[in-house]
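Example record

One chain of 119 residues, shown exactly as stored in the release files.
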Amino acid sequence: MTSLDGGTLRELGCPEETGEWVTRLGVLGMDCGLDGLVCSALEVGELRRRLGREAVLVTPGIRLPGGEAHDQARTATPAEALEAGADYIVVGRPVTQAARPREALEELRRAIGEGGVGR
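Predicted structure tokens for this chain:
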């Protein structure tokens, strides 16, 4: 859902705000027996609060500070996602499409470290 924004969801017939929709679906999924969810970093904090530490939260749409969003409407930096409560982050294009992937990966590692998150 990191590529969808509120306008797109309304076009699809979803009357709720994005965060409310994601939280409602996340709680429903966990109540149905899921072990975890893939969610934007923008909802991780609320989902973590509602679901506790047992839910595994995987967060795509991770971008380096100041990096391009590409087709992702709802992004966060690595530190923001981890500080909000994500267990795992998914990083693709900021590394795979970088002119210097190794340097991009090192920048990603620094961005995580600067957030003060020891994972």
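Notes: Strands lie at 36-38, 56-59, 88-89.
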